[in-house]
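Proteins fold reproducibly. Consider a sample protein:
=====
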Amino acid sequence: MPMPAQEIESLIADALPGAVVTIRDLAGDGDHYAAHVVAPQFAGKSRVQQHKLVYEALGGRMGGELHALQVTTEVPT
């Protein structure tokens, strides 16, 4: 069963308070998404560490409920 975009957004926003999360359905199938996350928690972290925080926020749903997620991250300006 595909994971709704709103659920992905909520999981990330809950794990990273103050984050601005934008989710796009890349294929229109509810299985392939892109997430753009702007969060203060990313300050001073490498891109890999930033992405890890996003994937951790999904609580192990990657590869199961959520098939594919393209992640871009940035620190607020």
Q: What stands out?
A: Residues 9 and 21 are 6 Å apart (CA to CA). The first strand starts at residue 20 and ends at 25. The chain has a mean pLDDT of 94.
